[in-house]
Design brief:
The protein is built from six helices and 14 strands. By secondary structure, the protein is of the alpha+beta class. It has a domain of 131 residues: VC0802-like. The strands form four sheets. Strands 6, 7, 10, 11, 12, 13 and 14 form a seven-stranded antiparallel beta sheet that branches. The chain has a three-stranded antiparallel beta sheet with strand order 1-3-2, with helices on one face. Strands 4-5 form a two-stranded antiparallel ribbon. A hairpin with a 4-residue loop joins β2 and β3. The longest helix has 15 residues. Belongs to the GATS family.
């Protein structure tokens, strides 16, 4: 419904959403196990089969987006470990390899994936949700933060962003569930009684992946972060974007995460 605009760029791929559910059912409103918990069984195998994914964590669950043209490879890759269903007219219908065998090509072994640089700003973040009926009460403030807040500081000499004070704000509305990621300073601008977080109220630190825009064609970027964190049993909240990928980890574990990723970088050289 959005009119064409010179200011809006649209990727040519159509994406499908995969939701990984434990034991065939997911209780409403349950907390997700984290992207790292599905790394070995979903993310890494797809990377090995040269399937590019976008990762979107929310307060309620995690979603993996794959390009529609890659669906046959996705089904063949995951069918051995998962029962796979597609949604038709609101109903979940089982999918078999035979349903998507037409046009399936066994993927070529991928080249060694590029290990992108990772950076960790000092900013502390909160992962929050809001009851849908209270959203109007903070709508004006949301618009102000999204569109009118100051841009992150840039170093005029180098043309780079000051990563000590990175600006990051994420808002998603999926099937009525709202998820928000904001820095701790921005959170103070909102009414505390309307923003809901986990009982521990933990703060998160960010690992940002990429030294330049990543695009959508490369595979293995999510696996680069998720696989070592999964091996160390460290949970992560992950958001892919066109320019960079972002993994949020509990603040108390950031030193271990940086060490693990540095070791990964050194071993991949």
């Amino acid at each position: 419904e959005l009119p064409p605009s010179e200011f809006m760029q649209v990727a040519d791929s159509t994406w499908l959403v995969l939701s990984v559910v434990s034991n065939g059912r997911e209780p409403p409103g349950c907390q997700a196990t984290g992207v790292t918990k599905i790394a070995r069984s979903v993310i890494v195998p797809l990377a090995e089969h040269h399937v590019s994914v976008l990762m979107l964590s929310t307060y309620q669950t995690d979603f993996i987006l794959v390009r529609e043209r890659d669906l046959p490879v996705v089904i063949h890759t995951l069918a051995g470990e998962f029962d796979i269903y597609k949604e038709e007219s609101g109903e979940c219908v089982p999918v078999t390899c035979d349903d998507v065998s037409n046009g399936f090509l066994k993927p070529k072994p991928p080249a060694s994936p590029t290990l992108h640089p990772v950076q960790s700003p000092q900013t502390r973040f909160c992962v929050l949700t809001v009851a849908p009926d209270t959203l109007p009460a903070i709508a004006t403030m949301l618009i102000d933060v999204l569109f009118y807040s100051h841009s992150p500081s840039w170093d005029a000499a180098t043309g780079s962003q000051d990563l000590d004070s990175i600006t990051f704000f994420s808002f998603s509305l999926i099937e009525g569930y709202i998820s928000i990621v904001m820095d701790a300073e921005t959170q103070k601008r909102f009414p505390s009684d309307l923003l809901l977080t986990s009982s521990t109220g933990e703060l998160w630190r960010m690992v940002r992946i990429g030294g330049q825009p990543l695009g959508f064609d490369e595979c293995g970027i999510v696996a680069q972060i998720a696989e070592p964190l999964a091996a160390a049993d460290i949970s992560a909240y992950y958001i892919s974007t066109f320019n960079f990928d972002h993994a949020l980890v509990p603040e108390e574990g950031i030193a271990e995460v940086i060490q693990l990723l540095q070791q990964r970088q050194e071993s991949g050289r």
